[in-house]
């Protein structure tokens, strides 16, 4: 078990956004959070590394309350990747090494080697290292974002709709990359997405959120072939 989410709720401005959420993630699995728009998926993802405060409940990472960790330590272990690549003006190398430089966790003498290795891992040519990141395609920028995330050697990647702005070919690249990271790095990946084809291709388990409630958690094949709740059946009927 990597993350344990126990009875958490989130209230914002008097509205109940998340209601008594419970689930656990396993090391080296892809867990997809799915559901209707406005169901609370992104809010839940943000709560997992304290970008969103919870109103009650407990969240543990590797057995430790995330509220007993410093934000910096938590966000080094549980790294968020956003829908729109959040790169800054500078080279690809600068962007990849940004987090590890802040944490002082790299040897300056081998920074180019580290950045080159990470770029290769996400399937990009190393000749891009000295390019300004803003000149890359959106799909390439998203892979640079993932390289920057895994440079931190995290336990978990928190991915919020990271393929929604991409073309089909770039989406396929990201899909293959996430599966590779799960297999080779034993990363736990929590992915919020509306792309059900992607879910069926890469997820180990899915969690269905409806109106702030986690109504079903199932292995991916079981969910799509035989959902156990009426809400699950209704959800699938809307996307068929």
TrEMBL record:
InterPro entries reported in the protein's UniProt record: AAA+_ATPase (IPR003593), ABC_transporter-like_ATP-bd (IPR003439), ABC_transporter-like_CS (IPR017871), P-loop_NTPase (IPR027417), PstB-like (IPR005670)
SMART domains attached to this UniProt entry: AAA
Domain ABC transporter: 3-236
Database matches in SUPFAM superfamilies: P-loop containing nucleoside triphosphate hydrolases
UniProt keyword terms in alphabetical order: ATP-binding, Nucleotide-binding, Transport
Protein name: ABC transporter domain-containing protein
Native organism taxonomy: Bacteria, Bacillati, Bacillota, Bacilli, Bacillales
């Amino acid at each position: 078990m990597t993350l344990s989410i126990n009875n958490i709720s989130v209230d914002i401005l008097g509205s109940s956004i998340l209601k008594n959420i419970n689930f656990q993630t396993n090391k080296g699995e892809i867990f997809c959070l799915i559901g209707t728009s406005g169901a609370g998926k992104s809010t839940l993802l943000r709560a997992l590394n304290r970008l969103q405060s919870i109103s009650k409940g407990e969240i543990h990472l590797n057995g430790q309350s995330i509220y007993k960790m410093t934000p910096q330590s938590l966000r080094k272990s549980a790294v968020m990747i956003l829908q729109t690549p959040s790169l800054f003006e500078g080279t690809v190398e600068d962007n990849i090494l940004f987090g590890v430089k802040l944490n002082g966790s790299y040897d300056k003498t081998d920074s180019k080697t580290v950045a080159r290795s990470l770029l290769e891992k996400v399937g990009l040519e190393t000749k891009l290292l000295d390019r300004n990141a803003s000149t890359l395609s959106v799909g390439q920028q998203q892979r640079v974002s993932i390289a920057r995330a895994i440079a931190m050697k995290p336990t978990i990647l928190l991915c919020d709709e990271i393929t929604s702005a991409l073309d089909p070919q770039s989406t396929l690249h990201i899909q293959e990359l996430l599966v590779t990271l799960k297999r080779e790095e034993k990363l736990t990946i929590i992915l919020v997405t509306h792309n059900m084809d992607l879910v069926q291709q890469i997820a180990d388990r899915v969690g269905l959120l409806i109106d702030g409630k986690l109504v079903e958690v199932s292995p991916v094949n079981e969910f799509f072939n035989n959902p156990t709740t009426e809400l699950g059946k209704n959800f699938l009927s809307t996307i068929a």
